[in-house]
């Protein structure tokens, strides 16, 4: 039986925190102790750590991780979903874990990944940008492709992770069988070019050095400067594979109509509205997981 594993990989010196969950290792949906839960992300709204560097080198840690993977790599091939959180989020959020369990139940391995400045990955939150996240996700995809037990690759992300999924889909269109942006914050580049971020207006000619990101977090100006140059429409036109977009119609952080526009521009997209629901699906998470389940069954 494959065991769920937790480890780190390096993206140009930045440690990225990953968890690999197999179908046989689904945890009890009602058990907070075994699954771990944390609050929803604030965009407009129990992990184990590797021993310290002083007690264990990166080389030794990597060797052990490879050793643990050997048995799985020789086993039956499985489709794998890479799953990414959103702005201020992490891999243990309720909606992230719900999607992970659903994919596991449908026979998918799931690789949850925390991006730069989030969760237990390296880097400071204030220094994170979409460019850094793009570098991170490309590294995670390369790692997933190196696993011999993987058949097809899927990419799923929530909010800013949903935007990341759309961008990575364009870059890895020949390697990803399907993408699943959940409540994707596709408007970030657009509003950044208009002079607004996190609901706060700013002078386009005098970008502020810092912004309040909530939760006592500060975001620095490079986040804005990078976001202003991201072309979401180009990314959409470059991905022709199957797309599932799920979005709450009552989302106050990322208005639903942005997903309507994105779905209309994709060549092969399905948009599933969750009536009246919030950004993190606080009301009808079961409808989200059922939409994901139905889509994954069709893909298999």
Verbal overview:
It is globular and about 55 Å long. The protein is built from ten helices and twelve strands. Helix 6 packs across helix 7 (221-227). The chain has one domain: Rossmann fold (3-Layer(aba) Sandwich), CATH 3.40.50. With 300 residues, it is an alpha/beta fold.
What key attributes describe this structure?
Rossmann fold, 300 residues, eight-stranded mixed β-sheet, globular, two-stranded antiparallel sheet, 23% strand, alpha/beta
Quick recap of the structure?
35% of the residues lie in helices and 23% in strands.
Within the CATH hierarchy, at the fold level, what is the topology?
Rossmann fold
Structural class label: alpha/beta
Q: Count the domains.
A: 1
Helix and strand element order: EEHHEHEHEHEHEEEEHHEHEH
Tell me the span between the first and last alpha carbons.
Answer: 22 Å
CATH superfamily: Alpha/Beta hydrolase fold, catalytic domain
Rounded Rg = 18 Å
Could you name the ranges where pLDDT drops below 50 across 5 or more consecutive residues?
A: 25-56
CATH architecture: 3-Layer(aba) Sandwich
Estimated helix fraction:
25-40%
Can you identify the CATH class? Alpha Beta
Topology, pairings included?
Blueprint (H helix, E strand, L loop, with lengths): L4 E7 L2 E8 L10 H4 L22 H16 L4 E7 L9 H12 L3 E5 L16 H16 L4 E9 L1 H12 L4 E7 L5 H7 L1 E2 L2 E2 L8 E5 L2 E4 H7 L4 H7 L4 E6 L8 H9 L3 E6 L10 H15 L1
Parallel strand pairs: 3-4, 3-5, 5-6, 6-11, 11-12
Antiparallel strand pairs: 1-2, 2-4, 7-8, 9-10
Helix pairs in contact: 3-10, 5-8, 6-7
